[in-house]
Amino acid sequence: MKLKLNVWRQKDSVTEGAFENFNVNDVSEHMSFLEMLDVLNEDLITDGKEPVAFDHDCREGICGSCAMSVNGYPHGHRKGTTVCQLHMREFNDGEELWIEPFRAKGFPVIKDLVTDRSAFDRIIESGGYVSVRTGQAQDANSIPIRKENADVAMDAAACIGCGACVAACPNGAAMLFTSAKINHLNLLPQGQVEKNERTIAMVEQMQNEGFGSCTNHYECESACPKSISINFISDMNKAYIKSKAFGKAGI
Amino acid sequence: MVLAITRSVIFAKVVVALTGLVMVGFIIGHTSGNLLIFVGQDAINTYAQGLKDIGAALWVVRSALIISVVLHIYYTLKLTALNKAAKPIGYKKTTYKRSTFASRNMTILGLTILFFIIYHLLHYTFQVTHPQFKDLQDSLGRHDVYNMIVAGFQNPIICIFYILGVLGLGYHLRHGIQSMIHTIGLNSDSAKKYSNLFAKLITIFAVVGLGSIPISVLIGLVGGK
Amino acid sequence: MILDSKIPEGDIKDKWENHKFVNKLVNPANKRKYKVIVVGTGLAGAAASATLSELGYDVHSFTYHDSARRAHSIAAQGGINAAKNYQNDGDSVWRLFYDTVKGGDFRSREANVYRLSQVSVNIIDQCVAQGVPFAREYGGLLANRSFGGAQVSRTFYARGQTGQQLLLGAYQALMKQVNSGAVKLYTRREMMEVVLVNGKAKGIIVRDLLTGKMERHAADAVILATGGYGNVFFLSTNAQACNVTATWRAHRKGALFANPCYTQIHPTCIPVAGDYQSKLTLMSESLRNDGRIWVPKKNEDAKAIREKKKTPEDISEKDRDYYLERKYPSFGNLSPRDISSRAAKQVCDEGRGVANTGYGVFLDFRDAIERLGKDKIEERYGNLFEMYERITGTNPYKSPMMIYPASHYTMGGLWVDYNLMTTVPGLFALGEANFSDHGANRLGASALMQGLADGYFVIPYTLAPYIAEESEKVTTDHPAFKEAEQEATDRINKLLSINGKRTPVSFHKELGKLMWDKVGMGRNEAGLLEALEKIPQIRNEFWQNVKIPGSGAQLNVALERACRVADFLEFAETMAYDALDRDESCGAHFREEHQTKDGEAVRNDEKYTYSAAWEFKGVDKKPELHKEQLEFENVKLAVRSYK
């Protein structure tokens, strides 16, 4: 099939970007979206033009590297899918596509479709861990964990850190990402000890990174390739207020 | 850097939610009271007089309401500015999956409602736009609220303005109530189901209840000869 | 060169304990004066960075990704082995050790494997303490499953995302140390050279992938945890960026490369669909528990399916060949990875393959759905079926899946001694980047175990003896840094100046196809000689005809790829030499000359019970072979049989 692509090109973080048009022919329905861009890039290189830069790595939807919006949808319109697993059979012959980087103040564009998502690392750095040193652990089965809690913690921990939640949110909020990690750890007995400090530190780091706040559009949940629930945001709000108000008392 | 709790976005969100709750309470009360117009002139005038007779206590309620309105607006505008700044560039094609007209326009709907409330206060409460309402009295010498409402809605333009205001309120409530429940952390699946239902019921009650009054007056169902 | 594996004295059960006691320690107050570079932030790298910094070392950690959380360890699905014996089914450190040595087809170092089995139990404790949400039973204790044909249930798992959860645990531990200032993390940096001063590793040169700037970093020791080289085949289950550059650059500086021909092929991947294919997706091996593998008996049926003139449903039961069940009646569809993979290749080579390329076999759930019902199958494999449908557009509930083997993991790597130090003093290699523990074949759920063992529990002990005795401090002003930086800069400039006609990817594809055909699942002398003739030709053309637009002073994805392909083009030759030298079949290395009548691998223990460690002698020159003889004192050499 044939497609008309409008791809965001931007030389670097300071230069202004613009859409560039490409007509791609011979697109196979079995190609992944990124393979379609690979083919375009091979042609560009052969013509001596710079290929479209985009982040990608595992191409099986788990590393969280790939990040672009197709027609305004982060990772494309298909639910629960990263753009590396989006296949061209989801599109129609002759369709015109708008391919853009993830848009948010917290994710400045580096080049073309590549954005700087290091703010997420700084949020994790601020408290997204259990302070245990190697070798300190007791036997793994010494603390039983309710299966339901372990399962919900796993639901939250499934986050791949791609940033689609931020990209989809009309407010550029990172609350789904932040709340997923806070809940993953707060739900487990190992993470309970530092619950208050973690929640406060991560929420405030998130705010300091310039992300917006949730006004309950629920766009993040539907864009999330792992379908992480917005319930976690609600839990985070509760945990934050509690920690802030009573945290010093160790409640 | 540890933030003061008042500078935190979550605090702001919770304040907006809780002040919203106060206002929802007011709307339920206000709508219920005004629906007495369908019972008759005596019912609504008695109710109005009753409110007046509470005196100082009424002012406590009113103060709470005014503080809520001020805080609600202040923190909403603060959050809106922050959220706008967090998303400086949108997408070429704007597409949504879950967000709604209401969720995307809460601030503008809110400001519309504010404008509407200001007019509504000038219209009926302080009677600035229609000073003649001050002198209306019923047979018992009470302020004749019934006839004031009927007189106030004789002008179709005012009625349309009221209906639009109420519709705006409906949209605002529909998203606001659900958001409020989510923000303050009631989020189990059953709570979500009920919060959704709750939001719908209150919205319908307020829109139908408040909207029916100007329509009824206009078509002569209330106050008709 | 004599390869001293430095295996400690004593009974195998006591070696590690003795070694830890005998080893010199570094005074806690002095540790912060020692700078350690860790390249790579996967399981091994992140675990090592976090742990060494907890001990007090000044750790500098490097990754080419934008975040330390993206390394390819994240993609491991199945689980992680540990000899916990929580299931009371007879598992023990000894049994895990025994299974691993046997599974490695007697080509691994016993002492290392035993240590791996010993520390496996600590890994699970550590990960649980970090908040890794392993699967649990209703009583709140950890769940286990049997994996990859093991006869005990010793595999811990977190849904199908075990690698992700373990990596996030290690990443979080790393970020905790970054937060406390104990680790300095450098992202989007590609290691270009190892810097040697007086024969010892004293630093690295990295290229900032965003600005193109070369940076010099000096240290007292350098640790490479840079993964495997499976992408030498171009198509593999590895991530796009996985490459051999760091280990190859170390190899060029004197670190021997061991057993590069041991490359594991995973039997259940989605077949190639077209020329544009960029990677192969792995489908969990668990599918083989209920799916039946078959191809048509008749070539004309297979041809008709390939040409879409027939559907699989048109082939009657008597015309189907369930070849694994036929050849290996006791293990059937659950036969080990190497055996299943080769059997698939064999039937496809006979012309009975399906998929449009002819390289694919059916994995059919028809009987399982009939027997257990669709709901049961959906409960067990629902997410895998969905993934398959998303990628291929075929509904596996209605029509059989198609699978084909793909390169998955590489057992070979930099040669290391018991301390995980390469033949370059001060240069260590961890995880998939070294050759140490899996011999000629890795067991399922053991890669995660080894990466974390090396990072959390081995290197913290084995680094100290080197550090304690090494006193020479160098700074980046040393001429060796200037020289290494110049080398890297020249290489980049050379690549940019060629301005030929072909893209870096086109060379990678050409090399990959050659390697897959001649140095892939089945190898023979003629094919290997052909590969050895053709690899230099591709390499020569690459250096004359590659085209890289843009400059070296910015993010340049074509240039990054070209640098990696350039190193694969040198490495591939060594891999072929190794496969040619090893004139036997063992584990994942199958020399077609050495098989039984039924196509089983035939080892030659008399001649080849050694690890082959290759020394770099220059591009276009044959590397020199050094042998580390392997002693089997605890597990008796025996023939693997899965009949």
Protein topology:
The complex is a heterotrimer of chains A (about 250), B (about 220) and C (about 650).
Chain A: E1 3-9, E2 18-24, H1 33-46, E3 69-70, E4 73-74, E5 96-100, E6 109-111, E7 114-115, H2 118-127, H3 147-157, H4 164-168, H5 175-186, H6 189-192, H7 195-208, H8 219-223, H9 231-246
Parallel strand pairs in A: 1-5
Antiparallel strand pairs in A: 1-2, 3-4, 3-5, 6-7
Chain B: H1 9-34, H2 41-54, H3 56-86, H4 101-104, H5 106-125, H6 145-152, H7 156-183, H8 189-218
Chain C: H1 15-22, H2 28-31, E1 35-39, H3 43-55, E2 58-62, E3 80-81, H4 93-103, H5 110-130, E4 155-156, H6 162-179, E5 183-186, E6 189-197, E7 200-208, E8 214-218, E9 221-224, H7 245-252, E10 257-258, E11 263-269, E12 292-296, H8 299-306, E13 320-321, H9 323-327, H10 337-352, E14 361-364, H11 366-372, H12 374-392, E15 401-410, E16 413-414, E17 427-429, H13 447-469, H14 479-498, H15 504-518, H16 525-545, H17 557-581, H18 605-608, E18 610-615, E19 624-629
Parallel strand pairs in C: 1-2, 1-9, 2-5, 9-17
Antiparallel strand pairs in C: 3-4, 6-7, 7-8, 10-16, 10-18, 11-15, 12-13, 12-14, 14-15, 18-19
Helix pairs in contact in C: 3-6, 3-13, 4-5, 5-13, 11-12, 15-16, 15-17, 16-17
Counting H and I runs of at least 4 residues, what is the number of helices of chain C?
18
Summed over residues and divided by their number, the pLDDT of chain B gives a mean of 92
H/I helix tally of chain B: 8
Q: What distance lies between the first and last C-alpha atoms of chain B, to the nearest angstrom? A: 69 Å
Backbone CA Rg of chain B: 20 Å
Q: How many domains of chain B, as an integer?
A: 1
Structural class of chain C: alpha+beta
CATH architecture of the largest domain in chain C: 3-Layer(bba) Sandwich
How far apart lie the N and C ends of chain C? 42 Å
What would the principal axes of the Cα set say about the shape of chain B?
Answer: globular
User: How would you describe the shape of chain C?
Assistant: globular
Q: Write out the CATH superfamily name of the largest domain in chain C.
A: FAD/NAD(P)-binding domain
Say what oligomer this is: heterotrimer
Instruction: Note the main sheet of chain C.
Output: 5 strands, parallel
Weakly predicted, low-confidence segments of chain B: none
Q: Residue-averaged pLDDT of chain C, rounded?
A: 95
Give the strand content of chain C.
5-15%
The percent of residues in helical segments of chain C reads: 25-40%
The low-confidence runs of chain C, each spanning 5 or more residues with pLDDT under 50, are none
